[in-house]
Amino acid sequence: MLKSLIYRSSILVAACCLLALLVQPALAGDPLTAWKPSFDPSGAEYTYLLSNIAHPAVAGIAVGYKIRDKVWERSNGRLYVDFRPLAQLGGEKDVLSKLKLGAVQGMLCSSVAAANVSHKLGIVNLPYVVDTFDKLDTFRNTPELWDEFRNSAQRQGLNVVDITGYGTYGWATTMPVKSFADAESVNFRIAQAPVNTDIYKRWGLKFTVMPWPDVPQALQTGVITGLDHTPTICNITKKFTVAKYFTRVDYAQGPFVHLVNKRWFNKLPKDLQQIFTEVVAEESAKARLATRQEQEEQIAAAKASGVQFYDLSAVEKDRLVAKSETLYDKWGEKIGPAYLGKVRSLLNH
Predict the structure, then answer these.
(1) In what order do the strands lie in the sheet with 46-51?
(2) Cys-Cys with 104: which of 98, 138, 154, 211 at CB 3.0–4.6 Å?
(3) By CB neighbour count within 10 A (0-12 exposed, 13-18 middle, 19+ buried), where does 7 fall?
(4) Per-residue model confidence (pLDDT) at position 2
């Protein structure tokens, strides 16, 4: 009984720590006050309930509000995008279930969770495939690559309408990591996704699979000594207050995949379908551009507060690519070897 109470208390503390860190960027009071609509949505003919787990301080999340306002304007108040960030509708696993049922109509889903919808959506998580901002834009804007990715969720009753992001993945650590040899002494927290587990197994690095709410306490207590994430997220959520070093591994982009329930979309009038699709594409492109600038701003802010940044050398990155070859074979079977080969070939040229 005592152990159970202690465990429950630790989970509650971790959850409270995460909430405090997420709310912090919005300063005091209601963290979403600045994002309330300037119009009364009660008269809308149609409502699009859109979920996300993160904070709109991140450009790739704030796009939800940009879409809300632009769709309202262009539809003359007929379609209201009811955007709910900060996990108001639940965690990603729960929301994906609601999305398939139609209880939620849309989701800005992390690419890690999106791979549970379709293996093809996991292609953006593989190391050194879609690893730069330019490659992410090329991937999105090349029909030969994008169409297969976009259509891969339809068997689940979902449409992929676009993609935004939250920066480039690397290692935030509590000790300096200037080389792969340094990384071998780190215990990295990784996301709860098979592709991430496979990456770290192939790389031969120590890791702990851990829910995001448990990360603050685990970093503070030394249960983990490293974090696999982007500098933007690490700075905005204050992970750099404990992990004061960041190694730019630059092995993948962190995208949010915009998923829409097909039945809901197909019931919209054709003119609203067109407005919705056009606005999402326009605002998502702007968000991807803003994410580039945001990353540089967050890195500058982190450096100003004392965080030290290191670049993993080209030789060491090549070593990680070589260690990933069997991973490409395994996930190529799931994604489709021809498609994975085409994506790698076109993006590398």
Answers:
(1) 79-84, 46-51, 106-110, 253-261, 158-168
(2) 98
(3) exposed
(4) 39
Residue 140 lies in a domain: yes
pLDDT at 31: 81
d(CA 273, CA 265): 7
Task: Answer yes or no: is 218 within a domain.
Answer: yes
3-state secondary structure (DSSP) of residue 165: strand
Residue 273 is predicted with a pLDDT of: 98
**Tokens 């109509």, residue?**
105
298: in domain? no
Helix (H, G, I), strand (E, B) or coil at 242: coil
Residues 277, 335: one domain?
Answer: no
CATH code assigned at 128: 3.40.190.170
Q: Are 216 and 18 in contact (CB under 8 A)?
A: yes
What CA–CA distance (Å, rounded) separates 113 from 60?
A: 16
Burial of 222 (0-12, 13-18, 19+ CB in 10 A): exposed
Same domain, 243 and 191: yes
Domain count, the chain: 2
Question: What are the tokens at 73?
Answer: 């304007």
Does 177 lie in the same domain as 29?
no
Which domain range does residue 42 map to? 2-165+255-293
Question: What's this model's pTM, rounded to 2 decimal places?
Answer: 0.88
Encode pLDDT of 265-323 as tens digits.
999 999 999 999 999 999 999 999 999 999 999 999 999 999 999 999 999 999 999 99
Considering the domain architecture, whether residues 244 and 194 belong to the same structural domain is answered as: yes
Tokens of 241: 């207050």
Q: How many C-beta neighbours within 10 Å does residue 209 have?
A: 13
User: Are residues 120 and 16 located together in one domain of the fold?
Assistant: yes
Per 3-state DSSP, the chain is made up of helix, strand and coil in percentages (nearest 5) of 55, 15, 25
* Domain annotation covers residue 35: yes
Work out the burial of residue 3: count CB atoms within 10 Å of its CB; fewer than 13 is exposed, 13-18 middle, 19 or more buried: exposed
Token pair listed for 4? 């159970």
